[in-house]
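User: My collaborator sent over this chain with a note saying "see what the structure looks like." That's all I know about it. Can you take a look?
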Amino acid sequence: MDASESQVPEMLQALLEERFKLKVHRGNANQEVFALVVAKGGLKVREAIANSGIAAVEEPPASTSTFFGSVTTREIFGQTGRHSAAAISNPRMGTVIETNGANRLQRWEAPNITFEGLADLLDKVMPLSSPVIDMTGLKGRYQLVLEVTIAGGDPTELDESVLKAVNEGLRKLGLQLERRQGAVEILVVDYAAKTPSEN
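Assistant: Without extra context I'll predict from the sequence alone. Here is the result:
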């Protein structure tokens, strides 16, 4: 039986439960996080327009989808077919269009995103050492464009250079990331057999 990509995580979990008697539960751990907060000077984004979306960008039948966590990505193509982009989506972020420009410029256009969704987006697309958590306290939906240029450099200083680049883009929106302590959801393994059971 063929399964869709969205069913793969659930099927894998069922297989591990059957073969390794895996038992898990979700919990919280307090650890260092990158907190998304409102910067000094206040927000510089507009509220989303009701039912806003990405109607100007059409998804071709041959687009591919990949899934990581609760976030879906798919490859999309412009009308000329000469450039490509990715559509990244989940309920909190709506649909975000990601494009790459010259000189390492990365651009995300989000017509209907929550700040929890923006934290989800940054957590997935930025190579940061700690999770990104929304701590703005704001629950609305917004329209925004985030542009970030990450220059190459010393790999041992990647975290700081990425944080600096992201904050340069976020501050244009009246936002920023700060290092803080926060509760992060984790998956706790209660039991797993060392050897799989027989088929």
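A starting point for your reply to your collaborator: Helices lie at 8-20, 115-125, 158-171.
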